[in-house]
């Protein structure tokens, strides 16, 4: 598995590859729509969700209601919506992305909300006991290098 | 002294294991005789469903957690229960207990009702009710069901898998009871208000229509498969003992309600069975599964494959 840090993925041809995205949610909202077109399969490893709005709105007023409505309209599956809904200790950040949820809805894109506990030679291991095999892992954290087995 | 949840979270992270760590083709599968296979297949199918539905319970608990660290611990526990369901399904696969497509056997109507209830109300159940129910189920699982399985099956791979599972479960039970201490130490008025809110119609109805027959059906199924009733008795005794050791747990009304119910469940001669539980098992057996609709997609997430591409 090839690990790409930060913006390295921009210069990398992902055509036909199985790609994992392990980055904070604001970056995932930017990266996932960009890679989902070329990759064969995309797995988005989510630590904790944030609210996403389709257009920039002032941070006053019912921004969370708008984000909730956006989520309800854009994501069909009730359980996936739950996984994408921030909890009471969740981040207060609001991310602007018109295409993140649409990208997640692609049949070859999968949201993985299980905690990631190790990056290994061929993929990422999550706490539900499964090793997710990948060709490429896009991650923001250079410390991931130290963890890689 | 306050419990160090941060240290526990670190331990949980350090102790993670994967299905890929297990050699599923190692020798020993031949110890599963045809006779034992026929006996254990329905038992394991029930066990996988208990773990899988238990995992969903932790997902709701994570939403209710009193602190961010406890929330993160519950998120791991949610995943670990799912891992246990996955590992037990992989054991079923190893022993030739699954059909060709390797899918989990269809659950009975009472499990389906429990899934429906969790989908509809899981996230709105009060913390104290859910936080009390989960350790009771874990004591039963850990103390009775798993011990029974390990007594019956000699396959070394099964014993290796359950060494991991038991070590996880020991941490679950420790945290579950420490959270009860945390809840119990809260102001009495809050406990009373929350307990009063437990009396919402969906909770009471859920308890009587879903939980009572679910537990009784499982209880009778498993005893019929050969689980000694003494093991169930010991499991409930453990719940009482650990809960009784705590300084504040006894202040939680839900703890006393579930403790009393558990005592009735294990005593087959108690009128609880004749007057409530047995009729509810009978009534729910007439519920057509199709009226429940399709469950949420978490139900499909269990897998016996250690590696996903």
TrEMBL record, chain A:
Organism (species): Nocardioides antri
SUPFAM superfamilies linked: FAD/NAD(P)-binding domain (SSF51905)
Protein origin, superkingdom: Bacteria
Protein name stated in the entry: FAD-dependent oxidoreductase
Classification via InterPro entries: FAD/NAD-bd_sf
UniProtKB/TrEMBL annotation, chain B:
Protein name listed in UniProt: Ferritin-like domain-containing protein
SUPFAM superfamilies xrefs: Ferritin-like
């Amino acid at each position: 598995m090839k690990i790409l840090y930060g913006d390295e993925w921009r210069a990398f041809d992902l055509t036909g590859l199985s790609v994992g995205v392990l980055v904070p949610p604001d970056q995932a909202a930017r990266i996932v729509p960009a890679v989902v077109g070329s990759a064969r399969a995309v797995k988005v490893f989510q630590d904790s969700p944030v609210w996403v709005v389709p257009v920039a709105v002032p941070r006053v007023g019912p921004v969370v209601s708008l984000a909730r409505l956006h989520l309800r309209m854009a994501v069909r599956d009730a359980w996936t919506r739950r996984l994408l809904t921030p909890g009471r200790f969740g981040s207060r950040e609001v991310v602007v992305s018109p295409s993140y949820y649409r990208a997640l809805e692609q049949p070859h894109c999968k949201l993985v909300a299980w905690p990631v506990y190790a990056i290994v030679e061929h993929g990422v291991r999550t706490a539900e006991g499964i090793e997710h095999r990948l060709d490429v892992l896009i991650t923001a954290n250079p410390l991931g290098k130290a963890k890689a087995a | 002294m306050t419990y160090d949840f941060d240290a526990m979270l670190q331990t949980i992270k350090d102790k993670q294991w994967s299905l890929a760590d297990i050699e599923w083709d190692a020798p020993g599968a031949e110890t599963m005789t045809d006779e034992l296979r026929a006996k254990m297949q329905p038992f394991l199918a029930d066990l996988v469903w208990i773990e899988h539905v238990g995992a969903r319970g932790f997902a709701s608990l994570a939403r209710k957690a009193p602190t961010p660290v406890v929330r993160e611990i519950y998120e791991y526990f949610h995943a670990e229960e799912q891992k246990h369901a996955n590992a037990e399904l992989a054991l079923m696969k190893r022993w030739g207990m699954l059909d060709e497509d390797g899918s989990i056997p269809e659950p009975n109507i009472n499990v389906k009702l429990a899934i429906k209830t969790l989908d509809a109300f899981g996230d709105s159940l009060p913390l104290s009710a859910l936080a009390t129910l989960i350790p009771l189920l874990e004591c039963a699982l850990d103390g009775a069901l798993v011990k029974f399985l390990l007594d019956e099956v000699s396959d070394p791979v099964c014993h290796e898998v359950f060494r991991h599972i038991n070590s996880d479960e020991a941490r679950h039970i420790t945290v579950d009871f420490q959270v009860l201490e945390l809840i119990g130490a809260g102001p009495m008025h809050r406990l009373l208000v929350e307990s009063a809110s437990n009396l919402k119609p969906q909770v009471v109805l859920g308890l009587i229509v879903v939980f009572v027959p679910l537990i009784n059906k499982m209880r009778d199924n498993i005893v019929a498969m050969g689980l000694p009733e003494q093991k169930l008795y010991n499991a409930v005794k453990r719940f009482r003992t650990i809960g009784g050791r705590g300084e504040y747990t006894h202040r939680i009304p839900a703890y006393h309600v579930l403790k009393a119910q558990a005592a009735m469940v294990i005593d087959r001669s108690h009128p609880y069975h004749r007057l409530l539980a047995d009729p509810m098992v009978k009534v729910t057996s007439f519920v057509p599964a199709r009226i429940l609709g399709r469950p949420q997609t978490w139900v499909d997430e269990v897998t016996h494959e250690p590696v996903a591409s």
